[in-house]
Specification:
Blueprint: E1 3-4, E2 9-10, E3 15-16, E4 20-24, E5 45-46, E6 51-52, E7 55-58, E8 62-63, E9 68-69, E10 73-75, E11 80-81, E12 86-87, E13 92-93, E14 98-99, E15 104-105, E16 110-111, E17 116-117, E18 122-123, E19 128-129, E20 146-147, E21 152-153, E22 158-159, E23 164-165, E24 170-171, E25 176-177, E26 185-188, E27 193-196
Parallel strand pairs: 1-4, 2-5, 3-6, 4-7, 5-8, 7-10, 8-11, 9-12, 10-13, 11-14, 12-15, 13-16, 14-17, 15-18, 17-20, 18-21, 19-22, 20-23, 21-24, 22-25, 24-26
Antiparallel strand pairs: 26-27
Length: 209
């Protein structure tokens, strides 16, 4: 049976694997776990008709309706995943992130604190968004990545902190993106250069149909 902690709520028609944890407390609530005050943990919210395999949804996070997952996923506190999304095996969504409706996050995707992802975005296997330009070397201010609607990010692509990717843009597999990508353009290479998007790719992602 899934472990449902504190004030967590589960919608109707959901399947939760026995190794799912809903409402795991972040650091500020952790002392309440396994105590007579566990009911005080805020908990998480899961919408209707979700299918969740083994993974963890932190307290104060929310999944919309009809979300599906693989195994070993993690969604941290104060993050929201929209309706109809796929959270693949090994996906990590850190705290204070927003993922829109009908997104597909494939195996091994990493989304760091402060990121914003629009509707119908596709992130291929091991796509990595980053938010710290100088890890452990200087005082830092985390800068999440922003993706507009209908963005595609290919497998093993890396997006550097603070960049914005416009609606309909396409990030080629393996690209390292160091600057903003305009709407309906393509980023390709290391470091990525911006090129015109082929005409046959100038259409919304076929997600949520």
């Amino acid at each position: 049976m899934a472990r449902v902690i504190g004030g967590s709520t589960i919608g109707e028609g959901c399947f939760l694997d026995r190794d799912v944890v809903i409402g795991y407390p972040p650091g500020d609530e952790l002392p309440l776990l396994d105590s007579d005050r566990e009911a005080e943990i805020a908990g998480a919210a899961v919408g209707d008709n979700c299918t969740l395999r083994a993974g963890t949804l932190y307290s104060r996070a929310r999944l919309g309706s009809s979300v599906r997952s693989g195994h070993g996923w993690l969604v941290r506190e104060d993050s929201t995943v929209g309706n109809g999304c796929l959270i693949g095996t090994g996906v990590t969504i850190d705290n204070d992130c927003r993922v829109g409706d009908h997104c597909s996050l494939q195996t091994g995707v990493y989304i760091p604190t402060g990121s914003r992802i629009g509707d119908r975005c596709f992130l291929g296997p091991n796509a990595t968004l980053t938010n710290d330009r100088t890890p452990l070397r200087t005082d830092y201010r985390l800068e999440g990545v922003t993706l507009g609607d209908d963005v595609t990010v290919g497998a093993n692509a890396t997006l550097m902190p603070g960049i914005s990717v416009g609606e309909g843009a396409f990030i080629a597999g393996g690209a390292v993106v160091t600057r903003d990508v305009p709407v309906w353009k393509m980023a390709v290479g290391v470091p990525a250069r911006i090129v015109d998007l082929p005409e046959n790719l100038k259409k919304p992602n076929r997600l949520g149909k």
